[in-house]
Amino acid sequence: MQDMLYTFEMIRDNHAANKAVNQTPKAYCFWLSLALGIMREPTEVETNKREWHGTHHSWSYHPQAFLWSGEMISGINLFPIATDMRAWMLQRGHLSFMPTQENLGPGGFTNPYTRSGVTLSLLMSRVINCYHDYAHGAEPSHDEVDSEIERLRIYNEILLYSARLCEVAIKQLLYCTQIPESRYGRMALGQLLESPCPTCKRANGKEPHLVSLVGTLAHPYHLCLEFEDCAMDHMNLVNKLRNSQAAHSGVQELNVRTSDTSRSQLLEESSDILNGFLHMLSHVEDLERKIIRDLESKATTINLLKIRGLKGEDCNFNLVPGEAFAFHPKK
Q1: 110 in any annotated domain
Q2: 272 torsion bin: left (phi>0), alpha (psi -120 to 50), beta (else)
Q3: Domain count, the chain
Q4: Which end of the chain, N or C, is less surrounded by CB atoms within 10 Å?
Q5: pTM of the model as a whole
Q6: Measured torsion, CA atoms of residues 186, 189, 192, 193, in degrees rounded to the nearest 10
C-alpha cells in the first residue's frame, strides 16, 4: 500500500513535481486556528439529537477487500481517508497524493472510492486553507460585494466537501463487503445513514423498514452506538445544511455589509461546521482502523494457508467481520 501513495513530503525533491509541491496544503493554517482557540479538536459538538431506527444487517468481506498478486494477498484495498484527513487538520501528518492510473502498476488499488477520497481530501485541504486566509486577512482588492461573495463561496465549499468526504470514506469501506454496490453507489450521505429497505419497497402493500448502512458497517466492531449517539447526528446536520444551502437551488442570500462583518460571519459559521467535521472524522477513523486491522489479520492467515499448500478451490471463505478467521478444511 505504501508504494501506491506518495506524500507531498516524499516528492519534495522531485523537480517534475514542483507544481504539486507548491500547492501542498498548509496544515499549519488550520493548526494556527486551533492554537488560537478559534477552533479546537472537539470531544463533543452539540447537534439536534434524533432517534435512528435503521436496522443493522449481517455481512461478510468480499475478496475485493484485498489487493492480490497472483494468488497471494499483497495488501488491503482501501486507504484510511478519514484518518489521513483528521491527522492533517491536527498537523499530525501529511495528506497523500495518488499517482496517475497508468503509473500504478500491478497490485494497485482497485477500490473505485479510494482515488476519489484522496482527491476530495486534497480539495478539502485547499478549501480549509482558503477559509483561514480569508477569515484572518482582508484581500486589498476586495470591496464589500467581493467579500460577501467570497464568504458564500467558501462556506458552500466547506459544506459540500464535508459531506462528500464522509460519503466517499463510507463507500470505500462498503466496497470491501459483500453488500452489492448497486445498493449504495448512488446514495447520498443521508441515505447511507438511513433509507428504506429496497426489498420491502418492491413488495406490494408493505411499509418498508429502514436500514442503516453506516450502522451496519459499525455493528460488528461494537461502534454502532457511538455512531448513533453522536457521529450520525453530525453527518445528518451537515447533510441537511448541504442540501438546503449548497447542493440544490437553495443558498444563503447575499447580504452585503462591511468586509469585516462578512469575514466574521464566515469564521463563526465555518468553525462550527469544521469542528463537527473533525469530530465526525474521529468516529470514521475508529471504524477504518478496526476494519484495516481485521483485514490484515485475515490476510496473514489466508496467505499462510496458501503457502502451506491450500488449493484455490478450497478458498471460498466466509470472512466474518470482527471475528478471528479460522479455516476448517472439508473432510
Answers
A1: yes
A2: alpha
A3: 1
A4: C
A5: 0.79
A6: -160
Distance, CA of 232 to CA of 49 (rounded, Å):
10
Cell 485547499 appears where? 126
Q: Is the pLDDT of residue 157 over 60?
A: yes
- Using alpha carbons only, what angle is made at residue 189 by residues 241 and 154, rounded to the nearest 5 degrees? 40
In-domain check, residue 329: no
Q: Given this model, what pLDDT does residue 53 score?
A: 60
Task: Report the distance separating Cα 22 and Cα 74, nearest Å.
Answer: 33
**What is the distance between the alpha carbons of residues 62 and 54, in angstroms, rounded to a whole number?**
23
Q: E-assigned strands of 34-109?
A: 66-69, 72-76, 96-97
330: in domain: no
Q: Is residue 323 in a domain?
A: no
- DSSP code at position 100: P
The sign one gets for the Cα dihedral 56, 60, 64, 66 is positive
pLDDT category, 238, cuts 50, 70, 90? low
Domain containing residue 129: 2-314
Phi, psi of 268 (to 5 degrees): -70, -50
State the DSSP H helix or E strand holding residue 195, giving kind and residue range, or none if neither: strand 195-196
Amino acid, res. 47: T
Amino acid at 266: L
Cell readout for 129 is 486553507
